[in-house]
Amino acid sequence: MNRLSQETSPYLLQHAHNPVDWYPWGEEALSKAKSENKPILVSIGYSACHWCHVMERECFEKEPIAQVMNEYFVCIKVDREERPDVDAVYMDAVQAMGVRGGWPLNVFLLPDTKPFYGVTYLPPQNWVQLLKSINQAFTNHYGELASSAEGFVENMVASESQKYGLVNGTIHFNTSDADAMFEQIQRHFDTEKGGMDRAPKFMMPSIYKFLLRYFDISQNPEALAQVELSLNRIALGGIYDHVGGGWARYSVDEDWFIPHFEKMLYDNGQLLSIYAEAYSLTQNPLYANRIEQTIHWLRNEMLSKDGGFFSALDADSEGIEGKFYIWTEQELKTALGDDFSWFSKLYRISRHGNWEHGYNHLHLTEPVEYAAKTAGIQAGDFVALYENALAKLAEKRRSKIRPGLDDKILASWNGLLIKGLTDSYRALGHEEIRDLAVATGHFIAEKMTTENRLKHSYKNGVATVTGFLEDYAAVIEGYLGLYQITFEEDWLQNAQALADYTLSNFFDQSEGFFHFTDAYGETLIARKKELFDNVIPASNSMMSHNLYTLGKMLDRDDYLEIADNMLSKMTKLLLADVQWVTNWAALYCQRAVPTAEIAIVGGDADAMRKDFDRFFIPNKIVMGTSTSSTLPLLQNRTEINAKTAIYVCYDKTCQLPVTKVEEALDQLAGV
């Protein structure tokens, strides 16, 4: 048992029984390295990471390998989800070394924490050879290592504006630039299978968000076609859990067939938002189904008794990746009984398996009713038959050994989920979705917030780790969503308080962007700024969206100015290669045309809002009150002839109030 046994992170606890003398990241380990003049090995991963588990089994659990590690290094284990700041710093360093980043990430540092070498997964003999080589280099060529490390640190501490040539300037946001961004990203589309033209295939919610907003301002059918193709294939493919609901992290192939089976809260939260918007636009019943099933899975399997949502489900169970989700032919026969014959045609089940080692995985490429016709399945009540078969498989799966659960609760990922739930409620109108969103908001406000300061992680009734910009950005966005589906002003006030805290403690006035870490947080060798959107949008792009929305809602010109300055500085990157900055591009689309400011006032404000929200109008803010309010957009607004009124405004200038949603939609269409 090593020191990790005292930690709460599931990932660190998984390594508590390793013979490696692991330390958590902290002063004890860093002081030991300095006092003993030993190099540091920082090994970074997360609990749902398949190759992290493989390297643990092959290397970290082996006594002879552990002896080499313990003799030559101070060994530190880091949960990247618990300490994204440490991960970001050393991932940046490793990529600067020319190594393709990924996890497990193993980085070698000098005793002063400066990095000089890094690798991802290595098999046992290569790993041991590397350990010995690094020990020899540290002993015999320290000066060269120190010089190399200094160069990497110089690169790490350089400002983002300096690195990417970002300059201040007033940009006139316009639709022509948005057209250019679309044409550029269009070159990377997979127009046959959806997503981008590369494998493995990751779901990229910020790309779909940009395409939806670009379609809104351009009505370019090619943008909508690519969104629909991508969302259809992601909803039907094996990356979606047909039996239990929810999406896995990514597809290892170009067909969305076999996923890396881990399920992450951040993917599912964001995809709820995207499918909700797409449903509002297209009314495709497949999208509504996937939203409902995924929320059912989240509520049943990922919701803690305290009220927050857990982080992830592991890819592995019983030592096999995906074992919980894949089936032998015999398992399916036993579970389905008389339904096996037609079900096996639908999903192309075979004794040899449609995947590997005799296993079958559920995967479609067209909606199930069409797939049934293609397979020659004749049944008048096919949908009911199909749902009953899936219920049988869900029942059978309850007897399987479940994959590991990462039961820490992260503020950032819960913020993304709150936004996903609020968007889902707006699209579908189911009250239980709103209740779940509100309850999750209360959990963060009450359990993870102290005097407008967020904690990053929650486990066993205790909130720990100073919050990062990603926490503030995602929670603010979630709170803004909660205000707009409840009109409860506390959520707006909470969002404003958190935004003001970030401006005081994260914002770099000289560069115009936010640091990733709090001024009160631990000081690392570099204080990073996150600018590029990935599977999760960059925390700076999220803050730019938030400040724009808050600025509109609260009539705060200072917020609007900061948001516009951030977006203006990023325009160079947006026009150079937009696919890495698509959440910024989504905001650019909003800024290229006026934003609708909707005020709903009167006793039926909530019902009127619910009716209004069914429609796809992404470039809007919605505010309301059933009585009266001092909020800028609601001040001096009243009912009309004792009827709830809708005010459609642009730049604080309102059209004549109307009392029917259809009339308000006509006003919006006329702009």
UniProtKB/TrEMBL annotation:
Database matches in Pfam families: Thioredox_DsbH
Record-annotated Spermatogenesis-associated protein 20-like TRX domain positions: 1-155
A biological process from GO: carbohydrate metabolic process
Signal peptide as annotated in the record: none
Domain of life: Bacteria
UniProt cross-references to CDD domains, sorted A to Z: SSP411
Cited Gene3D superfamilies: 1.50.10.20, Glutaredoxin
Name of the protein in question: Spermatogenesis-associated protein 20-like TRX domain-containing protein
Organism: Dyadobacter jiangsuensis
